[in-house]
Amino acid sequence: MELIRLGDKIVSRRKIDQAINRILNLRMKGLSQTEVAQRLGVDRTLVCRLENLGEVRKGRSLAVVGFPILNKKEVEAALEREGVDLVFIMSEEERWQYIKQKNGVDLFDSIMEQIAKVHSFDQVILIGSNKRIKIFEAVLDKEVVGFEIGESPIQEDKFVNIDELIKLVRAVKE
Questions:
Q1: Per residue in 70-125, pLDDT tens?
Q2: Which helix (H) or strand (E) holds 145?
Q3: Domain that includes residue 46, residue range
Q4: Strands 123-129 and 62-66
Q5: CATH number for position 76
């Protein structure tokens, strides 16, 4: 048993390691920080700080937004395999359905919600026209990496080269 003297205290290194392992195992099983803290009789902030201390991926979250995409399902699958945090892409038909399903106020609110959601990500890739890329950059007030699929206005679905998109995603994530 490895004992460590800290001032007036004698601390067991093994006991600390066991407690950390129990905390992490319970969190991996799906228990909340609060549930783990209650079960082990520790403060919830200890669980939170422990996780923060060991966190490998902090920030650099990535959202990919795009329209109108011809090979939407293939693009979504490729982005999911790459671990993209948010994928929001539409075909031309879906884009029009989105608009037609809502009245003016609901449409405005819905678009604002989507903008706020995308804005919360550290990095954004926009698949779209040259004009849309510039508009997104201005609205989000942050750098938007563009993947241009045509000149504005685009009124039909465009094929996205998945290999090129994945190269861009990997470059942005590095």
A1: 999 999 999 999 999 999 999 999 999 999 999 999 999 999 999 999 998 989 99
A2: strand 144-150
A3: 3-54
A4: parallel
A5: 3.40.50
